[in-house]
Every structure is written in C-alpha cells, then in structure tokens.
Design brief:
The complex is a heterodimer. By secondary structure, chain A is an alpha+beta fold. Chain A contains 2 helices and 3 strands, in the order βββαα. Classes of the chains: A alpha+beta, B mainly beta.
Chain lengths: 85, 152
C-alpha cells in the first residue's frame, strides 16, 4: 500500500478526476473530502463489509422462520404489487 | 434446465427465466445466474431470488416500496448502463430479507436493493449513497423513532 503524509488542507489526486483532501484532524478522527465523478461509488469500507455479511445471513434463512413468514404473510402485503410486471 | 432447490424441490428453468447478475452480489461475486420465483398464495409481495449456479442459495426478497414509506432508489449512469435500462417501467426493485428463527429479527436490507431490468434480464445489488437507509430494517419491531441499529 502506498502511504503518503499530508497536512490539513492538502490533497491527493488519483487518476485525473478523483481528489481526496484531508479536511480536518481531531484526535484520532480524520475528516476526508472526496471529489469524484458521480459514476465512481464511494463507500465506507465497513458498509460494504456489512452488506456482504447481511447477504451471507440472508442466504441462510431459517426454515422455521420461513414457515412463520408464510403463516403471517408479509406485513404490508396489501399495499402495492404494482411494480411487479 | 432443471435445478434441485432447497425450498421448492426440482424446478424447471427456461432460458427466459434466467436473470444475469454480471457482478454477482456482494459476498457472492461468483454467482451470476438467478431466477425469480413467486409462490403466490398468501405470500403477496414476497419473492424468491433463487441462484441457478448454487441451488442451495435462495434469497427471500420483498418490495421495499411497500415496507418503507417514501422509499427511493438511485441508480447512477454506470449501473443504468450495466443493466441496460432504457425504460424505467421495466425496472423491478427488490430488497433482500433476513429471516432468522426469532420473528422479531426479521429484517429487510434497504441500503442495498436488488435492481432488475425485467426486459433485459439483468440484475445488480445497488448500494445506495443515502445515509438514512438502514441495512437492517426490522419489520416486527416498534416503529417509534428512527430505524433501529444493531450493535456489533
């Protein structure tokens, strides 16, 4: 991994159109500004990891839970089926 | 083709029923082919996103617009291109559910909905930038206050 030292207000350019600026340092917290084209998704690492974990759990749904869901029906089942064509 | 599924036994899948996820799903990047099943009956608004590549994998999905008032999905240009979206009417948005033993823990992932172009049979789980959308939106818990978060 490339490690660079930056001071508050200084930036790093990645490629032609991504700019990362060190906005503020407070104790062990750093505020980072990111300028990137709309097409470049920017996420906190832990959000992406959490989605992966939640997907893993979703792939292991409990059989009894599913039976229960079948019995109860979905909570707002009557509201809207319009968007399924 | 036929696949032997966990919940539905052996089912036939026609070429037309195959939905391709070019990037897979986060955590399941190697799974590219799914099909959408509807068991009908009393389970309105709940569907099954069944993996064709690994028949033991099946996600329960539901209509996020029905569970969360004012739900909105943003799709950036790159994702719209990947999904070859030209007609917004052919887009189906679904949210993945987690169904544990305890019904109080039943939840919906509103942060990363599955977006499917029904016309082109292309899909992707699209992470939303909107910070207010919860990864775990509990269906059977009190709705007082903002959506709850789970620690750890």
């Amino acid at each position: 991994m490339l490690v660079l030292t930056r001071k508050t207000g200084q930036s790093i350019i990645i490629g032609h159109d991504i700019e990362i600026t060190l906005v503020e340092i407070q104790g062990d917290q750093v505020r980072i500004g990111i300028k990137a084209p709309k097409s470049v998704p920017v996420y906190r690492r832990e959000i992406y990891d959490e989605i992966c974990r939640e997907n893993q759990l979703a792939s292991m749904n409990s059989r009894s839970g599913i039976e229960l869901l079948k019995m109860r029906g979905s909570p707002d089942s009557a509201k809207n089926t319009d968007n399924l064509k | 083709m036929y696949i032997d599924t966990e919940h539905f036994g052996r089912i036939e899948i026609k070429e037309d029923d195959v939905i391709t996820f070019p990037e897979g799903l986060p955590g399941f990047e190697e799974l590219h082919r799914f099909t959408l099943l509807n068991t009908g009956e009393e389970l309105a608004n709940v569907f099954w996103l069944q993996s064709i590549d690994r028949p033991e994998i099946c996600f329960v999905v539901t209509d996020p617009f029905a569970v969360y008032n004012g739900y909105q999905v943003e799709i950036n240009d790159d994702d719209a291109a990947l999904l070859e979206i030209t007609d917004p009417d052919s887009v189906l948005t679904l949210a993945i559910m987690v169904i544990p033993e305890d019904p109080r823990d039943i939840r919906v992932n509103l942060k990363a909905p599955v977006v499917i172009n029904l016309e082109k049979k292309l899909g992707k789980q699209v992470l939303q930038q909107n910070e207010s959308l919860p990864i775990r939106y509990y269906l059977n818990r009190s709705r007082k206050g903002p959506p709850q978060k789970v620690k750890g």
